[in-house]
Specification:
Radius of gyration of chain A: 25 Å
Largest sheet of chain B: 6 strands, parallel
Number of strands of chain B: 12
Strand order of the largest sheet of chain A: 6-5-4-1-2-3-12
Order of helices and strands of chain B: EHEHEHEHHEHHEHHEEHHHHEHEEEHH
Largest sheet of chain A: 7 strands, mixed
Low-confidence stretches of chain B: 1-5, 7-16
Number of helices of chain A: 16
Strand content of chain B: 5-15%
Largest interface: A-B, 156 and 149 residues
Structural class of chain A: alpha/beta
Order of helices and strands of chain A: EHEHEHEHEHHEHHHEEHHHEHHEEHHE
Oligomer: heterodimer
Strand content of chain A: 5-15%
Mean pLDDT of chain A: 88
Radius of gyration of chain B: 26 Å
Helix content of chain A: 25-40%
Number of helices of chain B: 16
Distance between the termini of chain A: 24 Å
Mean pLDDT of chain B: 92
Number of strands of chain A: 12
Shape of chain A: elongated
């Protein structure tokens, strides 16, 4: 340690993440005013190659990285260099929160979270792994989410009968562990401010999947039988083709809502009457699904959704990315999107906040370039300029 | 602390033996369904004391069973797996907030609390007279977390939303589905738990802010805003390239093959992902397929060009295997593979068992079942075993008599007037 960093508020977060989940946790903390520093290997964080990539324009830049690393700073460390461990220890000593998912390839790498705890006992360490840090499943590499999702029971009920179980598209399953990680980080950081005693949070993404999919395993345990796919459509009418796309129709929970649904569709409200016997529920549903499908096939969806919502029936138009950005009123009415200039890809649009606090969630800075803040960060942890110059010259760290 | 009767009472989380991160924080939950109740369940899992407020005139709809002829007779409202999962670690009371006495007691609860979580359209809180300004007059430190479907303001604010309709509107369904197939929703809606977690995050940050300022605040978590937020990478891509993402099934932009294949038996599946040449050759060796061994397929670009044919060929071989045996074999060869476990099979999932992720909870009317524990493990602290989700109005006496010091006669009057109760109004 070369001089104790005088920790101001906000918290100093070191982000060693290689996956979307960990990086997203860092992004959320950054939005809540933490000072988040990506600690990257010399070749760049693996998050820089997460899809989607800018292959069309040929830059190869990762839009996922641009999003989940927005607002952070970057220090690049040559882990292969013998001096890198000392530098990492110095960084760790300055940290309030350390987030990661994979041990970095430094000599301080064996059980890295425990090393962080020993180096800085007042730090909160949040480590996100597919199955947790303890045996029997603690794979050395990090498999893609499909593998974890299969083992956690989250995949089995999604998709259509006869076809393979289906994953959420484009990494949607990876954000939830990131939010839980950010929750744990803030909660324990608050605790540390009172006790000065740090914490190691061992977060299992598979357990997060299970924790947040209550429709599956406990339901099966209660009923003593497994529900068949697609369970979603047994609770709702489902998604139907309409004249201008697809429309989702849902309202099985209340009788009066169900009556309004049929009125909105121009069908007799008597169709809402429940079956005489609970055992005929499936046939009742099938008959109404068929009616609804025939009814809405030629109807424009957007006016129908509007009409249903005004009647307090929760229809949903299937929106696509351009709809979100340009036409969905609920997102376009109050500065939800921001345009951010990136030096390589140019102007990019992002949603800037998932929550609205009195002190706004801030995330309108772009993601850093590799090693863009190496010098600044080293200065902040007490390195003299000569020392920084030597570290860069020796190849311990990389300056943009 | 003691109440007006001089009895010792437990309040503000004083019952925790070891202080946790949220020990001493009291949360009132005036929410229904999934997102709001999950938010307070997360806070409870970090040590907060949560009091869930329902009304016998309108119990939490997650109790389900409504509309069934035997709803009351068979107490279906106490037998909902989803309600009983997400409402563990809470006390439960009933209060009719349309009744002045019920509202007065609710304000008393707010006066002694730190956070109020609700997830209704804005008009619902207005109809109770529960604006943030009103609540803040009762308790200036109160943090109100509102999680409506479409936000507190704007042209859609008063519209209703369910998990599935929000998935469609915020873009999840449009990017999910089989290749060339229609958009799909999820059995276990993704937006509801995501919003619940974001609401817990917002509550925590507001608690931290209050630690510094002493002031509460009104926090807003719109379901569509929280949901669409995680489409950030795709929105950025579209804004630069104009590319609209298409549905990929279980395929992956980097790995090929990356999919789920039928195994021996009915509705039995295995997921397989190949990350490089070594894994590809190992997969070919295990599956022993002449077609897959075609030399050109060593090149990932060639595999991508022939992805349909390769998936078909893999599926022809995997049906000869039991899913667990094939998982074991492929894992032993270093290939990423996982049997697709059904919910019922999770109860014997070795990793979940080894880590104590499955916790047995005994609850009235349904008996003992296993439930998922909080997914983060902490060093030297846990919130302890979950208490069962409350039966309707289970803790009325505890709160009204024990905390507020109401006499038994007064409680009987409240019950007689329908302000509190233990059975839904038919």
């Amino acid at each position: 340690m070369r001089g104790k960093y005088v920790s101001p508020s906000p918290s100093i977060v070191l982000d060693f993440s290689e996956t979307l989940s960990g990086a997203f946790a860092g992004r959320l903390l950054g939005g809540l005013a933490a000072n988040v520093i990506m600690v990257e290997p010399a070749e760049g964080s693996p998050t820089r190659s997460l899809p989607p990539l800018d292959s069309a324009a040929g830059s190869g830049e990762s839009f996922a990285s641009h999003f989940v690393n927005a607002g952070k700073r970057s220090i690049a460390v040559a882990y292969a260099h013998s001096g890198s461990a000392a530098l990492i220890y110095d960084l760790l000593a300055a940290a309030d929160i350390v987030i990661g998912d994979t041990d970095p390839p430094t000599e301080a790498a064996v059980d890295f979270p425990s090393i962080v705890r020993r180096t800085n006992p007042s730090a909160v360490v949040v480590w996100i792994t597919p199955f947790g840090r303890t045996q029997p499943y603690s794979p050395k590499d990090c498999p893609p989410p499909l593998i974890r999702y299969s083992s956690s029971g989250s995949l089995a009920l999604n998709g259509r009968p006869g076809l393979p179980p289906l994953m959420p598209g484009y990494g949607l399953s990876e954000y939830m562990p990131g939010v839980v990680a950010a929750i744990c980080a803030i909660a324990w950081r608050r605790h540390v401010s009172k006790t000065n005693s740090g914490q190691l949070v061992d977060l299992s993404a598979a357990e997060t999947d299970h924790f947040t999919s209550v429709y599956s395993s406990v339901t099966a345990a209660y009923s003593g039988k497994q529900e068949s796919r697609p369970v979603a459509s047994t609770r709702n009418f489902g998604i139907f083709e309409c004249a201008d796309g697809h429309i989702g129709i849902h309202s099985l929970f209340e009788q009066s809502m169900l009556e309004r649904l049929f009125i909105v569709l121009g069908l007799p409200s008597e169709y809402a009457n429940p079956p005489l016997a609970d055992s005929s529920w499936d046939a009742w549903l099938d008959e109404r699904r068929s009616l609804i499908a025939n009814r809405v096939r030629t109807m424009p969806g957007r006016p129908l959704v509007r009409q249903a919502l005004e009647a307090h029936v929760p229809f949903g138009m299937v929106n696509y990315v351009p709809d979100l950005l340009h036409s969905f009123e609920s997102l376009n009415s109050d500065m939800y999107f921001a345009s951010i200039q990136h030096p390589i890809t140019g102007q990019e649009s992002f949603p800037i906040r998932p929550i609205r606090l009195e002190d706004p969630f801030s995330s309108t800075s772009r993601a850093p370039l590799l090693g863009e803040h190496t010098v600044d960060v080293l200065r902040e942890i007490g390195y003299a300029d000569a020392q920084i110059e030597k570290s860069c010259m020796d190849g311990v760290c990389i300056q943009l | 602390m003691t109440n007006e009767l001089g009895e010792s009472v437990v309040f503000r989380g004083e019952d925790r033996s070891a202080p946790g991160p949220l020990t001493g924080i009291t949360v009132v939950e005036l929410a229904a369904g999934w997102a709001g109740p999950l938010a307070s369940h997360i806070l409870a899992s970090l040590g907060a004391l949560v009091v869930k407020v329902e009304a016998i005139q309108r119990p939490d709809w997650f109790r389900t069973g409504g509309g069934r002829s035997n709803f009351l007779r068979d107490l279906l409202y106490e037998q909902s797996a989803v309600f009983n999962t997400v409402n563990r670690r809470k006390l439960g009371i009933t209060l009719n907030l349309k009744d002045p006495e019920g509202l007065e007691l609710f304000f008393e609860l707010v006066r002694h609390s730190d956070v109020l979580v609700e997830n209704f359209s804005p008009h619902v809180m207005r109809s109770f007279g529960l604006s943030y300004e009103t609540l803040a007059r009762v308790n200036p430190g109160i943090i109100l977390v509102s999680a409506p479907a479409f936000g507190l303001h704007g042209p859609w604010a008063e519209f209703p939303g369910f998990g599935s309709s929000v998935e469609e509107l915020c873009g999840f369904s449009g990017i999910t589905g089989y290749v060339d197939g229609p958009p799909e929703n999820f059995a276990s809606n993704l937006t509801d738990p995501l919003v619940g977690a974001f609401a817990a995050l917002a509550a925590l940050q507001a608690i931290v802010d209050r630690d510094a300022t002493g002031k509460g605040q009104h926090v807003e978590v719109s379901h569509v805003e929280a949901g669409a937020f995680v489409l950030g990478p795709l929105i950025a891509e579209y804004s630069v390239t104009g590319n609209v993402p298409r549905r990929l099934g279980n395929r992956h932009p980097k790995f090929v093959p990356h999919g789920t294949f039928a195994c021996e038996g009915t509705d039995q599946w295995i997921s397989i992902a190949v990350k490089g040449e070594r894994d590809w050759l190992a997969l070919c060796s295990v599956l022993d397929s002449q077609f897959l061994r075609s030399p050109g397929f060593v090149d990932p670009a060639c595999r991508r060009e022939n992805e349909d044919r390769i998936e078909t060929a893999i599926g022809r071989e995997t049906v000869r295997w039991g899913k667990v045996a094939l998982e074991d074999k492929l894992r032993s060869e270093g290939v990423w593979a996982a049997a697709v476990l059904s919910p019922a099979e999770l109860w014997s999932q070795p990793q979940f068992i080894a880590r104590g992720h499955l916790e047995a909870v005994d609850r009235a009317h349904v008996g003992t079942h296993l439930y998922p524990a909080f997914p983060a493990h902490f060093d030297g602290w846990s919130a302890g075993p979950s208490s069962a989700a409350p039966t309707l109005g289970e803790h009325n006496e505890l709160v009204l008599r024990g905390w507020f010091g109401l006499a038994a006669e007064r409680i009987s009057e409240l019950r007689a007037h329908g302000v509190i109760g233990n059975e839904p109004v038919a």
